[in-house]
Specification:
single chain; 286 residues; mainly alpha; 79% helix; globular; GPCR_Rhodpsn_7TM
């Protein structure tokens, strides 16, 4: 329980600090940091969704959960994963506009447009998971009620039902293709265009400066999608793999990106570094 608790606390502190800095520091009131705040908020919600049951098992050996609470947890876990993918896509769009049309950046990414993009990302995540989760409430469960993880996942729960789950098998595959896979393709395409634009800049110093503004986002994208691909491959092709590998990959998927994202942005973004230094210097003087 100690390593898990340490990681959870680090995630809460790291993402909570990012949210506080973006709210408090007026120099961070820009579209890039608004999207970063959405990413930090999503990571916080993922952590708060899984933490109670994981720590309940590790601390108190509490291994029971009501059907309603289980389905609700599955709904939030999967919805927030799609929201995170959407936020990373929105951040790619932000970097694309900043580098391709820097003079029109503020006129294109206005506060109202950022809010609309954010609302669209949230709606896509939370509405797209309603169709597969709602049927779980009226399915009959005649098999073992033992889950593979310390939290509820849709693919885990649906295996316990005796009803026809054809829709619940097919819909998630289509959803993953239209969200994670499509988002990853668009992000890749946007970076190809960004790279093309950067290569057209005459000054080597300006090229490095432009690319440096994308490093943090690229790192977060790689962390997120590598864990998504790893978990997907384990679920699809690792049926004979030891159970501990399945469980470990699920924890890596839910803990590694929220843990790494604040660290990546704190190390790679000078404005965030300055805000952190300012925050600590104010507290020291106080």
């Amino acid at each position: 329980s100690i390593p898990f608790f340490a990681v959870y606390i680090s995630v809460l502190l790291g993402n909570g600090t990012l949210l506080y800095l973006i709210k408090d520091d007026h120099s961070l009131h820009e579209p890039m940091y608004y999207f970063l705040a959405m990413l930090a908020g999503t990571d916080l919600m993922v952590t708060l969704t899984t933490m109670p049951t994981v720590m309940g098992v590790l601390w108190m050996n509490h291994r029971q959960m009501s059907h309603g609470a289980c389905f609700l947890q599955a709904y939030f876990i999967h919805s927030l994963s799609i929201v995170e993918s959407g936020v990373l896509l929105a951040m790619a769009y932000d970097r694309f506009i900043a580098i391709r049309t820097p003079l029109r950046y503020n006129s294109i990414l206005t506060n109202s447009r950022v809010m609309k993009v954010g609302l669209g990302v949230l709606m896509r995540g939370f509405l797209s998971l309603v169709p597969p989760i709602v049927p779980l409430y009226w399915f009959s469960y005649c098999r073992s009620h033992v889950l593979s993880h310390a939290f509820c996942l849709h693919q885990d729960v649906m295996k316990l039902t005796c009803a026809d789950i054809t829709f619940n098998r097919v819909y998630p595959v289509i959803l993953v293709a239209l969200t994670f896979f499509l988002d990853a393709l668009i992000i890749l395409f946007s970076y190809i265009l960004i790279l093309k634009t950067v290569m057209g800049i005459a000054s080597g110093e300006e090229r490095a400066k432009a690319l440096n503004t994308c490093v943090s986002h690229i790192s977060c994208v790689l962390v997120f999608y590598i864990t998504v691909i790893g978990l997907t491959f384990i679920h699809r092709f690792g049926k004979h793999a030891p159970r501990v590998i399945h469980i470990t990959m699920s924890y890596v998927y839910f803990l590694f990106p929220p843990f790494m994202n604040p660290i990546i942005y704190s190390i790679k973004t000078k404005q965030i570094q300055r805000s952190i230094i300012r925050l600590f210097s104010v507290h020291r003087r106080a």
